[in-house]
Structure to design on (268 residues):
């Protein structure tokens, strides 16, 4: 599958060229954003490009990024929640990852950046009244050329057996059973989905008629909602590509199993 290869080879970029996006590329980015915002899943969010990227960098340097090291890029895209609630955080990440997939198809490189919650002074200066509703931006541009023989940076991923379980949470399910049900390739691919600090805070439970997604219920659950939205997007695309056409349904976050909470269900 082409999409399977895309997920396994998708990389975040932290070093961008200083090259600005030209007018044709800006137009393509704007069109990609409009297409995503036209979809029903985007009803609770707004997405905007910021082409004065280095101004964003100067304002957020030391305040966002990896251990306070801001990712410097020629442009960024902001994700705004119209209302702060779990569904908007999940579908915001779902739709943003869909947009990212299209931007990578345009030849751009990307990097998710988590911002401090709330209306911090830096965010207010950049986003005004929207500041408290923006918790993520995505850096976009062109990656710096790598030096010859530089190895690819990699991060470990959990095995399918560590994230997928059988009818009763969280009891093992055989690889043969997943293969019989047409789910093995899907789970083998989505385990490469990116997550904050590569924590991979998800577990899936496969029952007769649905796949249930659980996420780790701890102090980082707000960030994990975004991680969940990303992996839900990849599951959705691969499931539809395999003929398993359904929709994710968000749960009420009241069903807990061990240290996890039930987040969403996908009918089979």
């Amino acid at each position: 599958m082409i999409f399977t290869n895309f997920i396994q080879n998708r990389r975040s970029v932290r070093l961008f060229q200083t090259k600005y996006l030209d007018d044709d590329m800006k137009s393509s980015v704007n069109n990609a954003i409009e297409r995503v915002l036209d979809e029903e899943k985007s009803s609770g969010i707004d997405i905007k490009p910021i082409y004065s990227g280095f101004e964003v960098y100067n304002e957020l340097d030391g305040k966002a990024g990896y251990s306070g090291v801001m990712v410097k890029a020629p442009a960024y895209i902001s994700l705004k929640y119209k209302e702060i609630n779990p569904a908007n955080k999940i579908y915001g990440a779902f739709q943003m990852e869909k947009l990212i997939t299209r931007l990578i198809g345009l030849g751009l490189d990307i990097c998710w950046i988590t911002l401090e919650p709330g209306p911090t002074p830096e965010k207010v200066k950049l986003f005004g009244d929207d500041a408290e509703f923006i918790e993520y931006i995505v850096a976009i541009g062109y990656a710096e050329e790598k030096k010859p023989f530089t190895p690819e940076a990699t991060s470990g991923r959990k095995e399918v057996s560590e994230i997928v379980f059988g009818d009763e949470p969280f009891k093992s399910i055989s690889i043969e059973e997943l293969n019989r049900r047409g789910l093995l390739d899907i789970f083998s691919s989505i385990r490469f989905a990116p997550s904050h600090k590569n924590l991979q805070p998800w577990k899936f439970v496969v029952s007769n008629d649905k796949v249930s997604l659980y996420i780790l219920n701890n102090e980082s659950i707000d960030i994990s909602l975004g991680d969940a939205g990303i992996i839900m997007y990849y599951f959705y695309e691969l499931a539809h590509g395999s003929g398993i056409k359904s929709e994710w349904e968000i749960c009420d976050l009241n069903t807990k199993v061990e240290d996890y909470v039930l987040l969403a269900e996908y009918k089979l």
Summary: The CA atoms of residues 28 and 106 lie 8 Å apart.
